[in-house]
Amino acid sequence: LGNTIILDNGASSLKIGKVDSQISIYPNSIFRSKSERRKNFVSNQIDGCKDYSSLFYVLPFQKGYLVNWDVQRQVWDHVFGKDVLNLKCNESNIVITEPHFNFGSIQEAMNEIFFEEYEFQSILRTNASTLSSHKYNNDNPGEECCVVVDCGYSFTHIVPYHKNVKVSEAVCRIDVGGKLLTNHLKEVISYRQLQVMDETYVMNQVKEDACYVSMDFNGDMETCKLKGKDNIVLRDYVLPDYTQIKRGYIKVGYTTPTKSQEQMIRLTVERFAVPEILFHPSDVGIPQMGLAEAIMHSVSKCSEDTQPHMLRNIVLTGGSCKFLNFKQRLEEDLRRLAPDHLDICLTMPENPVTYACEGGLRWTKTNTIREHWLTLEEYQEGGQAACARQFYDI
Predict the structure, then answer these.
(1) DSSP string, 90-123
(2) Of all helices (H) and strands (E), which one includes residue 331?
(3) Number of Cβ within a 10 Å radius of residue 349
(4) What is the fold, at CATH topology level, of the domain defined by 4-128+353-390?
(5) What is the assigned CATH class of domain 178-273?
(6) How much is the pTM?
(7) Strand 93-98 relative to strand 65-66: parallel, antiparallel, unpaired?
(8) Cβ-contact 90, 80 below 8 angstroms
(9) Residue (of 199, 172, 122) closest to 310 by Cα position
(10) 261 pLDDT exceeds 80?
(11) pLDDT tens for residues 173-198?
């Protein structure tokens, strides 16, 4: 299976891995820029855009599921095409990820596009967390269980595995992901300081640069009430103007605004209140469990003899895990909820975004993957029924 690519098809970005090469990340979107009206930027063409203000996003995913096929096809065509990967699809195999609880109609359309239009030699359709589980088990021989926590763009999924097989009845979903956090930050800043509802791109950078997970929420709230230099949470964020300042940044030290051309927003409570939604979705009116409760709930649905092993092997993946203190806070919350005699151990990979893709590349080098492939001939013979049989719950 030499010519195999892994396509971790996320709602925010495509992570693509080829055997023996670096994993690449491309935006899964088409952008329209206010300053360059007539031009569409497909995926990584956005790097050539000069002005990221008021970027309009056209996304193939809505609420975590692939619904806009025209946009997704344009992104795939661009990424597979000669400008980016220069992929000969009819000589390649592909492992492609899909969200949990995906709809049958979406699965059928994917099978059709990859077999009939791109004509890949063989396909394996699975979930990103399954690929993560393979990587984790490879890195930790002797462990048969793990819980993959995938904090993605649209959702957060908690998926337990036993011997690389998903425990389907224990899969848990929280309707909070990176998109909701960025949108909430936009609303708070627009309400308090500056109208930024159209500035998704910039506010996403603000979230990544300035937000962190609080280890003492009430203490941090008290700190935010202090004036001047005593308020150690306060940060001034200089917004880009795309002439002098190409990317926003946090201003060092406590300052009073001086240069009039610098447009700044002052961040205090938002810095930790936005990521807090992952731990308490009810803060923004989502009547669901927070991360720690959801993990305990998910583990409780697994067979009793595997539960201690599950709690000892929790692996954190997805872009929203990258907040400062994320792992420590989750560990603390879990420790409070779990029985005292059970160990809790969380693993934060070096790069939680590409972890699933790395797992896919590792899996393609083993023999166990062979039984999961579906070839073009088998598809032509058995059609959608063959896909439904082959990709059932892997």
Answers:
(1) GG-EEEEEE-TT--HHHHHHHHHIIIIIS--SEE
(2) helix 326-337
(3) 19
(4) Nucleotidyltransferase; domain 5 (3.30.420)
(5) alpha beta
(6) 0.90
(7) unpaired
(8) no
(9) 172
(10) no
(11) 999 999 999 999 999 999 988 888 88
